[in-house]
Specification:
Elements: E1 9-12, H1 18-29, E2 33-38, H2 41-55, E3 59-63, H3 69-78, E4 84-87, H4 102-130, E5 133-138, H5 151-171, E6 176-183, H6 189-202, H7 206-215, H8 225-235, E7 247-250
Parallel strand pairs: 1-2, 1-4, 2-3, 4-5, 5-6, 6-7
């Protein structure tokens, strides 16, 4: 399928690996030029080189922490007129509500709520003025259904969800649409970290942790990054203009809900 976005430019945060990298590859395959961002320079440069060689699109890399003002400023300087924004940031570590301090919550809000909001506030006006734009926020299935130990992440990402619900509808008439992608467990470094944390917390093996987590997924497996990337690219395409302010689950049926 021709997604109708060849020649456009996308900014993808936290895109040197995992779901961000998979999304970048899918957009590059559709002919989109890229501005990639991540904190680790070596992994980011390798990702950019791999994509540019394989797909022949222009790739700009900007190393920096998108959750800080300085990091955002550096990225925005290279991505002022992008047509597509994909926000993404790693979640805070798992834990228990009895352990979290105010600083823990502020850190989660900065990374998983306030940083993507700041990026949208910076880039949406240009998209609106040009009459076309796509924003996809990579959040988590935890905003639809609670996940034990992920209260910090759920709190911050739910706040972002509320912001998008209002803002997406405010600006939809301009040709700019905003949606959220809610991944369940995918085979990424994040999944490995959560499996290790569960194994330590429950005093079980990592293999047992994986078995327990896949047991709750109707398809019986973790998702693949390529599946996620293709869905992200579709939400950035010419065909997504009537999908506004939605929270789209990619969780293998794991969230047991009718609506």
């Amino acid at each position: 399928m021709d997604l109708g976005i060849s020649g456009k430019t996308a900014l993808l945060c936290a895109s040197s690996k995992g779901l961000g990298f998979a999304s970048a590859k899918a957009l590059a395959e559709a002919g989109v030029d890229l501005v990639l961002n991540a904190r680790g320079a070596e992994a980011l440069e390798a990702a950019g080189e791999q994509i540019s060689k394989r797909y022949g699109v222009a790739v700009t890399t900007v190393t920096g922490d998108i959750t800080t003002e300085a990091g955002r400023a550096a990225v925005l300087a290279a991505a002022e007129n992008v047509d597509i924004l994909v926000t993404n940031a790693g979640g805070p570590p798992p834990g228990k509500w009895t352990e979290w301090t105010r600083d823990d919550f502020i850190g989660a809000l900065d990374a998983n709520m306030l940083a993507p909001i700041a990026m949208m506030q910076a880039l949406l006006p240009g998209m609106m003025a040009r009459g076309w734009g796509r924003v996809v926020n990579i959040t988590s299935q935890s905003v639809k259904g609670p996940i034990p130990g992920l209260g910090l992440s759920s709190s911050a990402r739910t706040g972002l969800t509320g912001f998008v619900a209002v803002t997406a509808r405010d600006i939809a008439h301009t040709g700019v649409v905003i949606n959220n992608l809610l991944p369940g467990i995918h085979a990424t470094d994040r999944a490995v970290a959560l499996d290790l944390a569960m194994a330590k917390r429950e005093n079980i093996t990592v293999e047992e942790s994986i078995r327990r987590r896949t047991a709750g997924i109707p398809v019986g497996r973790f998702g693949t990054p390529d599946e996620f990337g293709a869905t992200c690219a579709f939400l950035c395409s010419q065909y997504s203009g009537y999908i506004v302010g939605q929270n789209i689950l990619l969780d293998g049926g794991g969230i047991n809900a009718t609506f």
